[in-house]
What does this fold into?
Amino acid sequence: MSGKVQPSEEEIKMETEKFHSRETPKLKEIEFVHDVYNEIAQHFSQTRYKPWPIVSNFLETRKVNSFGVDVGCGNGKYIGINKKVFILGSDYSTGLIDQAKILHERESFNDIIVADGMNLPHNDSTFDFAISIAVIHHFADEKRRIDAIEEILRVLKPNGQALIYCWALEQEKSRRGYHEGMEQDILVPWVLAKKTEGKKNQPKRKGKGNKERDVEGEDLVEQENKEVIVEQIKNEEKPPVKMRFYHLYKKGELSDNCIKAGGKLVREGYERDNWWAIVEKVQ
Amino acid sequence: MKFLTTNFVKCAVKSCDGSEGSFPLKYENCQLQLEEQDFNPEFIVSMLERLDWNAIIQVASDLGNNLLPSQKPEDIDGNSEMLKDLHSLLIETQIIDGEMVCRNCKHVYYIKNSIASFLLPPHLAK
It folds into this structure.
């Protein structure tokens, strides 16, 4: 991947203003989550192949032949981990589901559909277990985040367990440097860089004293690994940066949301800049 | 979408929750394809327990198959013929194109290129 091309201050400011001007959380999600994932799906999928250990362990320890749902499965990274369970993966992004289809063609132990995590097309008490990895943090207000967890619990069988992961505010050790006290609702750029013939034409960035902390006080230089996309941009007017909305969870917040959603907290923890919780549906 | 999945999806509209017509959906103008898959008899036995057999019959009939037994098959452990038939129906039968209609609210969902979409227009989504 070539050098990092940063969104300009102007672009960041424009996107942030646009985000705040959208009247409802639903509209914010359409523009700053769903549309972006559809646009970046192919490249995003290429960066999502390493399963996280706690997720793998959760999946490997499910009962043989049990039946689960992966809400927000993206490119299906987790639907093929354990071939002894059946997983129905769903995602709002048609683009990501298309990637999942390519990666999981002809597998007998899963299926994929396009669905909205807030309006899951399943009867109550359908699944033995659920996972929702790096998804709930994309809902744009707290009520919708709690409702989304409640929706997962609804489709779980009584005593069924869900593993939920959300991005953490506390990331002091990561190069992103998000930390306690910062704004939790942020826009994270996926930079679309212009493809050039040689690398010498890539804009260079020198010096680290530049003002790059404009949006919500966040560092927009170093974001998720490899999240710099080099893509041919045919239309020069097209904004070269795509902003995704995230709510960064602070310590205790995810378990609090799970309990407010009516679930019973089984375990919680922190792994790789994320908070995770295992929540159980009560009778 | 695998035939099996038809037993686990319903109309996504919240006001249809609990209504009889929202599950199973009505399958119309569907194109099917048989896709060879690994045969796992234990999975079929275990999955059979949780299937809503009436819904299986109804969807199969929508798709032109009226040959299923009216009662859910029982004690099929050693019945390899029955297990293979069920494997072929549930796992190998793909709906690659078609429509799914809610009998309650009449909303139409589409299956294209083997992918079913349950996204709702904004006024119907929570």
In short: Strands of chain B lie at 26-34, 93-101, 108-112, 115-117.
